[in-house]
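Structure tokens please, single chain.
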Amino acid sequence: MKQFFKFVFATITGLFLGILLLFFIGGAIVSSATSDEGVTVKTNSVLKAKFNVDLPEQSQPAPFSSFNPESFIPKKQLGLNDVLKNIRTAKEDDNIKGMYLELSGVPIGLASTSEIREAIEDFKSSGKFVIAYGETMTQKAYYLASIADQVYVNPMGVVSLKGYATELAFFKNTLDKLELQPQIFYAGKFKSATEPFRRTDMSEPNREQIKSFLTAFHEDYLEKVAAARNMSPQQLEEIMDKLLVRNAEDAKEHGIADEIFYEDQVYDEIRTKLGLDEDGKINFVDMGDYTDANNRPENKKLAKNKIAVIYAEGGIVSGKGDDGEIGSEKYAEIIRKIRQKDDVKAIVFRINSGGGSALASEIIWRELKVAKAQGINIVASMGDVAASGGYYIPVAADKIVAHENTITGSIGVFGILLNANDFFNNKMGVTFDRVKTTEHSDFPISGFLTRPLDDMEKEVFQQGINEIYANFKQRVAEGRNTDTARVETYAQGRVWTGKQALELGLVDKLGTMQDAIEMAAEMAGLDDYRLVEYPRQKDPFQALMEDFMKVSIGPSIKEELGSYYKYYQQLKDFQNMEAVQMRVPFDMEVK
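Here you go.
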């Protein structure tokens, strides 16, 4: 009888999941059938934008995470590529009369935020209006808002202006309590990615480099925001330093906000700008919907020549890699396919990565070098972070374009092995024994150890680290047309801003993704071209099935942990990393 009920329960569960799956597949089919119709942008419309969620470099299909229950049509997760394209297109769209920025938190990187801000500033040059409103604006949210014609804040709201900071977590005491002994090797006094596992605080070199780039970001913020709000950088810095903006009234008094309004009052202002009466309907067009609008003023002609744009985002790993990772096998295959196409005249390699596997970085670097040798023009475009392994790969390009707020450099190498013998013995009651044919038969190259390394093994491992570091410097020297002695002066694992990197010769130009595309077109002698983006978007059904599997096992760890997820991710990266890494310091979140 017990087995009978188990069988019945399993059958009912299977039927339920099957019906649920068919329901969502049906929704996807409906979506597919209706998506061709697109969205029609009415005359006298306003482009509405929020930036309160993560913004990947490339738009991604997200059938469940952004499912619209009202229409049963799944929407994709918008990426920076489409956001920037939408703003540029809206500038020329006669149906779009202005932009409405509804801002609160902006959980995206500084360079990405700056690219969006610059695109909005260019949008304004058309004479169209930009209005920003927020209930509670974070510092990055206000960075975007400040470029608007008018900034409005809710009566109960506030604008956070306090300057930049970053906080690092250190796990040495945790490892000590667990009796886990990291065996750490590194090259470069600034290579601080290992510090969380060997120290309880920052080293002075690490504190020096963090202070350096935070100061650069702070000065950039003061300069741009103060200019937009018609005040001096000194006035703005005083507001930050003394925390003078503590409520909405303070924001207006100090020139941070223009008026204290509820959102319905902001809508009244927009109606006035559109020439509507007080009850007139505002034709808002959501940023995501505008991506699929069928009457955008774009050139639909398919040019023969192509520029391939490759988006590489996340940690650099061997193999195919998961979503959000730069897998060496996956990206090597993409580049090989591209260089076999006669109509691709240039590659723009857009990278947003703090690095990862040294071997995987080398494999992708090699494929770009081969493409370059075939005569394909290559321009690297750096996003929020392009450091360590994320800098190693771009040095294969003809030219490198970084944003002034990009975090880059970190030319250094490290490796970590974890001796877990005492943990298993004293905490778990597990012991180990072994049989060897030579003295070092059990010499590990990655992962967990069940014994400490001896002196010879430590020497061998450190030698390997030094050789890879020397190779890294050689790659940079060749790519940047300099010598390794010069590279050593700005290497040592030190992190630089894009602006500092330009002064050092690490990059060729400060600019945006669009600047990199235009540079690639000029290098290839192209006046007429079209962009093709890689990795190719997943088939909608494939994306649907993958998201269904994620939903079926419950909320994601990221959703459950919230702001604590970064600590989980650090430990997960530590567990999964190969022995030798090119990676920036963990948790380089600037807030």
